[in-house]
């Protein structure tokens, strides 16, 4: 149980309080932990207890896998049009309940309500996209060199899929995985993040309401620690699971890859980022500032594709820094449910400590704070850090090497195109990169040289349901979204017919 001295009645904030569930969902049933163990879920903006959540053991993860395996044949046997209809119903319900889904997300994650509702719209778009994409999983015929022989290739669902999702986008990271899996004919076991399980459970409510058969969608919940590790191990080692889709840190991705090797799971990983954001001397500065704010400060900087290293040409460095500091200094920090708040809390105290460490390290090596630079201690267990801009950041410091995952914008100075490309590519990860320039040739040249899976040119926003989202190097492999997203949940089967 929680030691928090205060609690929050989340249900009272909802028009439909039934969307607020505090049990896991296995085989169409709402279940507590089999041994009755719970863990406290708190609001990162207030420190208040939201609910005591089930701390499920590994045996219940195995139960969920069994349920998904049992449900698989009937779900896979549905036509693509029938599965598409389910996804369109989910899309409709997500739009209908956007306010409530956004409120749940805001309270458990901390991001401002307007931003949370934007995520719900983004999450719903994956339902709509994959409802259509599931109808276009075409096979092919391949001419044979042998007379009287025909070759056909058909697409089939890979099977039971373990979906391990992060807390920073509690709705969209689930829908981005679940929608193509269901459209392909797979069944799923979702391991909800300990920090934000309520959004996953709310989606299970919607699945139940539209009549998704029992066992097709399952949600297991547990706190950080041994049971979370055991859940990942069960998903990786259980022979009934054919596919793991994971979004999270690179170290955890490495661990899951080792664990999945024993059963040769198909894997798709979207791992850590350390995005370079390059602003050349011919850039539209107002547009570049807007791009940095959109990329860096969305979700209080807790996104895998946010600008982590901001390289600004020396000719415009001071002007750009001043413009950015003015905008960031006007942010309103607070509880995301409060009108006008633009920056919410970090999800936990560990996030605050990391941002504080990066700021202190950079300042100790010569960087200067233009705005922010301090954690906000309200004495109530909340997790706020001031939106921060650093200038004169040296090449060698922690923020140049590590993903901050917080509202810290470090500005590095550069003069030469080739040098800044080399610096941008020096990271072991390669998820996203950004560049701002009016030079068409340069935009293409630099975009092609950046060692990342995605590049934004003159924009700080790249995520959409219709694009292939993913990285290179140690940012993982596989793609989510776009025409290739559903392929991650399918296998090609060859049928060769002779004697014709």
Automatic annotation (TrEMBL):
<dbReference type="InterPro" id="IPR016163">
    <property type="entry name" value="Ald_DH_C"/>
</dbReference>
<dbReference type="InterPro" id="IPR050740">
    <property type="entry name" value="Aldehyde_DH_Superfamily"/>
</dbReference>
<dbReference type="InterPro" id="IPR029510">
    <property type="entry name" value="Ald_DH_CS_GLU"/>
</dbReference>
<dbReference type="InterPro" id="IPR015590">
    <property type="entry name" value="Aldehyde_DH_dom"/>
</dbReference>
<protein>
    <recommendedName>
        <fullName>Succinate-semialdehyde dehydrogenase, mitochondrial</fullName>
        <ecNumber>1.2.1.24</ecNumber>
    </recommendedName>
</protein>
<dbReference type="InterPro" id="IPR016162">
    <property type="entry name" value="Ald_DH_N"/>
</dbReference>
<dbReference type="InterPro" id="IPR016160">
    <property type="entry name" value="Ald_DH_CS_CYS"/>
</dbReference>
<keyword id="KW-0560">Oxidoreductase</keyword>
<feature type="domain" description="Aldehyde dehydrogenase">
    <location>
        <begin position="30"/>
        <end position="492"/>
    </location>
</feature>
<feature type="active site">
    <location>
        <position position="270"/>
    </location>
</feature>
<comment type="similarity">
    <text>Belongs to the aldehyde dehydrogenase family.</text>
</comment>
<dbReference type="Pfam" id="PF00171">
    <property type="entry name" value="Aldedh"/>
</dbReference>
<dbReference type="InterPro" id="IPR016161">
    <property type="entry name" value="Ald_DH/histidinol_DH"/>
</dbReference>
């Amino acid at each position: 149980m929680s030691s928090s001295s205060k609690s929050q009645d989340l249900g009272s904030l909802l028009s439909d309080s039934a969307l607020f569930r505090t049990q896991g969902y296995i085989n169409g049933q709402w279940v507590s932990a089999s041994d009755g163990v719970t863990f406290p879920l708190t609001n990162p903006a207030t420190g208040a207890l939201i609910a005591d959540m089930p701390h499920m053991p590994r045996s219940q993860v195995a139960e969920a896998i069994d349920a998904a395996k049992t449900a698989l044949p009937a779900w896979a046997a549905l036509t693509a049009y029938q599965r598409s209809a389910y996804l369109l119903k989910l899309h409709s319900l997500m739009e209908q309940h956007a306010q409530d889904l956004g409120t749940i997300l805001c309270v458990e994650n901390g991001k401002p309500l307007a931003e949370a509702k934007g995520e719900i719209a983004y999450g719903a778009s994956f339902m709509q996209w994959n409802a259509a994409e599931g109808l276009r999983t075409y096979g092919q015929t391949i001419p044979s060199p042998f007379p009287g022989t025909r070759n056909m290739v058909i697409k089939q669902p890979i099977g039971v899929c373990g979906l391990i999702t992060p807390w920073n986008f509690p709705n969209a990271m689930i829908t981005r995985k679940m929608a193509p899996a269901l459209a392909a004919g797979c069944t799923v076991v979702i391991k909800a993040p300990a920090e934000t399980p309520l959004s996953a459970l709310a989606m299970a409510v919607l699945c139940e309401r539209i009549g998704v058969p029992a066992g097709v969608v399952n949600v297991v919940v547990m706190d950080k620690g041994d049971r979370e590790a055991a859940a990942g191990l069960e998903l990786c080692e259980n022979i009934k699971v054919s596919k793991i889709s994971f979004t999270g840190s690179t170290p955890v991705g490495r661990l899951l890859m080792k664990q999945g090797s024993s059963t040769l799971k198909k894997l798709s990983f979207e791992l850590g980022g350390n995005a370079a954001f390059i602003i050349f001397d011919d850039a539209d500065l107002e547009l570049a500032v807007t791009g940095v704010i959109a990329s860096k400060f969305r979700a209080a900087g807790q996104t895998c594709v946010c600008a982590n290293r901001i390289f600004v040409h020396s000719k415009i460095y001071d002007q750009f820094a001043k413009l950015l500091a003015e905008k960031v200094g006007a942010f309103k920090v607070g509880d995301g449910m409060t009108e006008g708040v633009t920056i919410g809390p970090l999800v936990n105290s560990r996030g605050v400590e990391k941002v504080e460490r990066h700021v202190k390290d950079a300042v100790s090596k010569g960087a200067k704070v233009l705005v922010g630079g301090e954690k906000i201690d309200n004495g109530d267990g909340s997790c706020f850090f001031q939106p921060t801009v650093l200038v004169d950041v040296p090449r060698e410091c922690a923020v140049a090497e590590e993903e901050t995952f917080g509202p810290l914008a470090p500005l590095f100075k550069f003069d030469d195109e080739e040098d800044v490309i080399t610096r941008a590519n020096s990271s072991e990860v390669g998820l996203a990169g950004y560049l701002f320039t009016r030079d068409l040739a340069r935009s293409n040249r630099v975009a092609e040289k950046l060692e990342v899976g995605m590049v934004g040119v003159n924009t700080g926003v790249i995520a959409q349901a219709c694009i292939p989202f993913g990285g290179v190097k140690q940012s993982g492999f596989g793609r989510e979204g776009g025409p290739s997203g559903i392929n991650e949940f399918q296998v090609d089967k060859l049928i060769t017919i002779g004697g014709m």
